[in-house]
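seq as requested:
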Amino acid sequence: MRALIQRVSEASVVVDGETVGAIGHGLLILLGIGHSDGAADVQPLAAKIANLRIFSDAEGKFNLSLLDVGGAALVVSQFTLFADTRRGRRPGFVDAAAPTHAAPLVDHFCAALRQLGINVETGRFGAMMEVKLVNQGPVTIWLDTAQQ
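struct tokens:
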């Protein structure tokens, strides 16, 4: 699983002119699922993200987690995180899992975050989405379960 997380002061997802998910202070999580990803990857990644100390304390140091600050998460499925650009000019996506494999894992990931006490909003799996965000910092971090 690959997650690109961005610390935000606000973020939302719009599908066909309708806002389907929105948060204030928290994390926008773009989540990609690969062929070899499974249920065993979900809980460790959710716990890592929930406890990652990327929010500033009173002294301006990264000492607080999403749980510490009571922030929310906006999770958006993003198969393009598995883009292969090594050949040619058009990215290939053969490493991204099929929707039948990916969709349940995205749902499982959201449930894992909720079990940790995080308010979770989502995009709409497979839809053309407009993702709007105000990246705070900016802080953007790449996580890959294959590299942990």
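The CA atoms of residues 5 and 29 lie 5 Å apart.
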